[in-house]
Fold this sequence. Notes:
The chain is of the alpha/beta class and about 190 residues long. It is built from seven helices and six strands, in the order βαβαβαβααββαα.
Amino acid sequence: MNKKVGLFFGSFNPIHVGHLIIGNHMAEFSDLEEVWFIVTPHNPHKKKKTLLDDVHRLAMVRIAIEDFPNLKASNIEFDLPQPNFTVNTLVILEEKYPTIDFCLIMGEDNLKSFHKWKNFELILDRHSIYIYPRITNKNDETTFSNDSKITEVAAPVLEISSSFIRKGIKANKNMRPLLPYKVWEYLDEMNFYK
């Protein structure tokens, strides 16, 4: 039987304890054997002054997960033409790792707009999706509410955002409790987001 790997996509700008809690929860409390953090590169069509270079965001993910053997960091999207779509990444991963069943990990808020993704039908046909809870209006049923390929995992509900952390650092607030300690050291040493 193929190994099941969950793909957790994000800019991780920076990675924070919320990302780690979700990733680790998925690896420990679902049938996923590993969770790969897919660091999404800078989109050349969107100039974002606050987005750190790909290499720094990847380095922080690697630092953050070094004590978690079931969590991995991936730069698979770094060499793909931009802007890239998830469906393209999945095709590349399937070709590169034919003995792995890749599943998507996303917040339930993202599931609501999943029907707008490029080739979402193909993604859902070939891959399972693991959903973690977010604070949303529970009455909002999605098109996919009863789809057998979608698994809801009762992970902790976390409202921590990278943008909140960046703003806090810029305002000279102590944001250390929201970041893995070595990630905080890296950010501080590099003087990022100040």
